[in-house]
Fold this protein.
Amino acid sequence: MLAPPSGTANRFSFLMGLRDPVVFILLLAAVFDGISDNWVHALFLGSVGIALAGDVYRRRRLNVTADLGHTASSVPAGADDAHSAGGAAGAISLAHGGAAAMGEPGVRSSSRAESSAFWTVLYASAGIAYALVVGGFPRYSWPATIAVACLGAAIIARGWAEPPARVAASSVPSRRGVIAWAAVFVAGALWELVTLLLQPTLTADSYTHPTISVLADPLLVTHTGRSLALLAWLGCGWFLVKR
Amino acid sequence: MSSRAITIAGYVLALLAMVALEAASSFRRSGIPSFGQVVAQIMRTRSGRVGLLTAWAWVGLHFFAR
């Protein structure tokens, strides 16, 4: 059983949110973006990091309260939303099951498929329109900044509020496999970091040691190139949201 | 081989490693999950979900925003 949070413990408990690895990475990235003079990026990452730290702290407090009241077993931070989502998913599946039992399953599934296809076409059209319009704005301009930041914030907010999907035990990836993927991504990120540090300064590009963004510059000079890159970016966002 | 070529080769190597892992994931015996499975696992928790979506948003900001 955990100790009840006292006044002093409460203040320090907020700092406990900073121990979440995602919060730590976001705040560290915000600091690096800040010293690289990318203040919009730093503000964006820092805001999400601080909000997430507050959320982690709030969820841990809720766990402590529930534990003290003997209403719930000790649930690790991060698993609580999966736990509640399990309930929500169960409720949804029960609602669907009940509806299917009352109605005609064949007609209902066909109707759902049509509705899903409709929304897919709508989102795809909106994505193409967004890429064409925003791709027309010059890079690093305020219109492009506002368009990208607003869409990013909206998708993060959606992900924040949405209960996670339940992953079947059989599809949980092996530890070895996750380490293999993590190793490749960390190696790639370190290579990019080394390249960044080999530039004359953090804000000056280098032909000899090009970062990925420097290599992408020729593509992003034209409207078509920017629109294609935005479409790829939106596609990645779609891939994440659908998980 | 110039420094520029070595730098670019490093990126290509990382990309090839990702392609190799994704290809290996199609063989069950390898024990390697697909990229989608790893992402789905990370997206199970709120911290993971917010972290990945913020990383995605940051990529957009990095290439297009001030």
In short: Chain A is about 75% helix and 0% strand.
